[in-house]
Write a structure and sequence with these properties.
By secondary structure, the protein is an alpha/beta fold. It contains ten helices and twelve strands. The protein has two domains: about 90 residues, Metallo-beta-lactamase, Chain A; about 160 residues, Ribonuclease Z/Hydroxyacylglutathione hydrolase-like (Metallo-beta-lactamase, Chain A), CATH 3.60.15.10. A six-stranded mixed beta sheet has the order 1-2-3-4-5-6, covered by helices on one side. Strands 7-8-9-10-11-12 form a six-stranded mixed beta sheet. Helix 4 links the parallel strand 10 and strand 11. Helix 5 packs antiparallel against helix 6 and helix 8 crosses helix 9. This is Hydroxyacylglutathione hydrolase, mitochondrial.
Length: about 300
């Protein structure tokens, strides 16, 4: 199994997963279809399927054009709001692409229909892979826009947190540096946070991706996976894990606002450049918002 990491838009990641024997390929979160097809052509693979983690436009906006350019393409996900969806997936469902197995893991919190994808290959020494969208990122997670803190806690701790520690985590955004700076605020004495932050700063200087991490690493420095730890409970002032997570989300939103005040004109320009303001359906979030912001006034507070 080969994974091509494809940076797009401002800080998003698309992925192309290749079964190296059959040369079948699966794409994850198609935001810029022509860029994806360039890589499909260069790799000489047969694209059969799109796996979409959630319906936000910076993860699903390319589905319609890609389906038009690539007839017969299967577009799969768990939320009917996903563009060009051909089949809705359910929690625990398993798919097969050659030797690659895919287990579909419903992970509500960021959105109610967020699906993460756990992949492994038969008789392969390589570690499994998790495509976590905005449910889990390097040293962080996406803001809670739909659902409850308890649902989000179950997604992180009970669904994703129990996967094998060697699992490679491929997330939806390059937010690692900001996530680690917040993690250092939460746990200033955590040596794993300090070391990862130093590493991420070097990666940022070199303008190279910080993905993937591993789940085992995330359990050492990601505060959203560490809500049962005494240091995180002390920071949040809460004992119950779901309550600590909810408090952590509020603190993360405040941290984002303090570090980078909202600049609506710049964000509107980016949205215009990406074509996100041309969608006729104004009732849906058009792009994943930063922490503490919502894409539409009707979205629940994180």
């Amino acid at each position: 199994m080969k994974v091509k990491v494809i940076p797009v838009l401002e800080d998003n990641y698309m992925y192309l997963v290749i079964e190296e024997h059959t040369r079948e390929a699966v794409a994850v979160d198609v935001a810029v279809p022509k860029r994806l097809l360039e890589i499909v052509g260069r790799e000489g693979v047969s694209l059969t399927t799109v796996l979409t983690t959630h319906h936000h436009w910076d993860h699903a906006r390319g589905n319609v054009e890609l389906a038009r350019l690539w007839p017969g393409l299967a577009v799969l996900g768990a939320d009917e709001r996903i563009c060009a969806l051909t089949r809705r997936l359910t929690h625990g469902e398993e798919l097969r692409f050659g030797a690659i197995h895919v287990r579909c893991l419903l992970t509500p919190g960021h959105t109610s229909g967020h699906m993460s994808y756990f992949l492994w290959e038969d008789e392969c020494p390589d570690p499994p892979a998790l495509f976590s969208g905005d449910a889990l990122s390097v040293a962080g997670c996406g803001p809670r826009l739909e659902g409850t803190a308890q649902q989000m806690y179950r997604s992180l701790a009970k669904t994703l947190g129990i996967l094998p520690p060697e699992t490679k985590v491929f997330c939806g955004h390059e937010h690692t540096l900001a996530n680690l700076e917040f993690a250092q605020k939460v746990e200033p004495c955590n040596d794993h946070v300090r070391a990862k932050l130093s590493w991420a700063k070097k990666r940022d200087e070199d303008d190279v991706p910080t993905v993937p991490s591993t789940l085992g690493e995330e359990l050492l420095y990601n505060p959203f996976l560490r809500v049962a730890e005494e240091s995180v409970r002390k920071f949040t002032g809460k004992v119950a894990p779901a309550e600590a997570l909810e408090a952590l989300c509020r603190e993360r939103a405040s941290f984002e606002h303090a570090a980078e005040p909202l600049q609506p004109q710049a964000r509107a320009l980016l949205a215009l450049q990406w074509g996100l303001l041309s969608t006729p359906d104004r009732s849906e979030p058009r792009v994943d918002p930063p922490w503490g912001q919502v894409a539409h006034p009707s979205s629940p507070d994180p």
